[in-house]
Amino acid sequence: MRDAVIVDAVRTPVGKGKPGGGLAGIHPVDLHAHAIRELVTRTGIDPVLIDDVIGGAVGQIGEQSADTTRWAALAAGLPESVPAVTVDRQCGSSQQAIAFAAANVISGVNDVVIASGVESMSTVPIGSQTAGRDPFGLGVAQRYPEGLVPQGISAELIAAKWGLSREQLDAFAAESHRRAAQAWADGKFDAEVAPLAGLRTDETIRPGTTVDVLAGLRPAFRAPQWERRFPDLGWHVTAGNSSPINDGAAATLVTSSEIAAKLGLRPRARIHSLAVAGDDPIFMLTGVIPATEKVLARAGLTIADIDVFEVNEAFSSVVLAWLAETGADPAKVNVNGGAIAIGHPLGGSGARIATTMLSVLEQTGGRYGLQTMCEAGGQANAMIIERLG
Questions:
Q1: Nearest to 386 by CA among 359, 366, 371, 372
Q2: Tell me: the pLDDT tens digits for 207-241?
Q3: Quick one: signal sequence residues (predicted)?
Q4: What DSSP string describes 154-204?
Q5: Which of 41, 45, 177, 265 matches a 20 to 30 Å C-alpha distance to 160?
Q6: Which class is 4-125+244-269 in CATH?
Q7: 8 Å CB contact between 190 and 336
Q8: Known catalytic residue: 344?
Q9: Would you call 91 a catalytic residue per the annotation?
Q10: Are the C-beta atoms of residues 158 and 234 closer than 8 Å to each other?
Q11: Does 374 qualify as catalytic in the annotation?
């Protein structure tokens, strides 16, 4: 059976959302195209050889509608003969794109695939795809008669269930900013980022963030309707210990070892194992725990075998609960900071953290990296890669 390898990965800087974000004025198709174009340039792949472009996007409406990945591929200059498709597994969309690319390569359906993702949250605001409509229908309403909840409430429920204090959430967030700022200062992001529109670094990193600064922020999701339904919540989740609103894109080139050798390409990592899991859609963001267990079992590895982890920081409580359940070493998790600092451009984040994880493995000499992302609806992706070379 064939394998699947990552030849290269690249991302844009992550811009802050409107107003004033450095990437806010760029159409999402052009934002996505920049990552794809840079990937082709860096690898030197003949674009005619690309069998498909699989891209993730969450807000598939307006400027990100109509199979936005197809238009990004054309805007990037790929031949018209190269097809493209856009997938939606919510925040894990571009991680799912990598999984689909790997599956297609391993099965022999494709030889060379770009797996990528984008989100311009400045252009397509979060939640705008539902446009005030009911996306769930009667069957879901009957199964969950008390109603589903926003992600912020899920983050509060997680904090309460795992007994996480406001101080713990804020301390985790402050450390994310510290690590990300230090990584930029040390040049650790330089190779993975393709500057765009004069923006060279991630915009939402705040080097001076401290627990004392974060302590002054009010709970972001506290409201009478939720207080009545959940009277025992501590209301610890704030804008400071949550991921911000962002714009960004990332892209990876996936092929097999055999095809890479024929094309003279040097793979950077092998896609070792993949998994996806579902969990309670009320707690929503806890799927990273069973997804991690599932991918480790599939790989025949233990948590101690993993050298680097990327656990998407949608909220501090998500990663802290994951740490409590898995027993992973916090020093190996989001080594160069995470989404609370770097940002979370929804559909682009899975490919973004894959790009960063690959860089960290090479910087530290680690062998295995595991990434996992919580997703709306109570799902999560998990992927283990093995550094080559």
A1: 366
A2: 999 999 999 999 999 999 999 999 999 999 999 99
A3: none
A4: HHHHHHHHTT--HHHHHHHHHHHHHHHHHHHHTTSSGGGB--BTTB-S-TT
A5: 177
A6: alpha beta
A7: no
A8: yes
A9: yes
A10: no
A11: yes
